[in-house]
Amino acid sequence: MLAEIAEKQRILEFAVEQGRIPVEKHGLLKTAHERLQQAAKAWEVRKAEYARAADRKIEASREKLHDLRREFEAAAANLRLAIQHWHETHQGILSMA
Prior knowledge:
The protein has 97 residues and is mainly alpha-helical. The protein has one domain (2-96). Helices cover 88% and strands 0% of the residues. It has 3 helices and no strands. Helix 1 (2-17) packs antiparallel against helix 2 and helix 2 (23-56) packs antiparallel against helix 3. The two termini are 24 Å apart.
C-alpha cells in the first residue's frame, strides 16, 4: 500500500512540475504526504517494538506487553487515517485539476 502511494506521489510531483496541477494545490498534497510518512514511521517503530517484545517474550510483564500492543494498535489506526486523508486529498486535487 505504501509503495503504491509513493508511486502516485511521484507521479503527482511530476504533474506539478509540468504545470498540470497548480502549485498552490501541491501544498495540500505535500502536507497529506508528510502526515502519511510520519504515521508510517511511527507505525514501523511500534510494530518493531511489539514484535521484539513478543518474540523474546521479554522480561516485560504482561502489562508492558499490553501497553506495547495498545501503542502499536494506536499507531496502526493513525496510519490508516493518514492513508485515508492522503487518498481523499489526492482524489480532491485530481478532480480539480
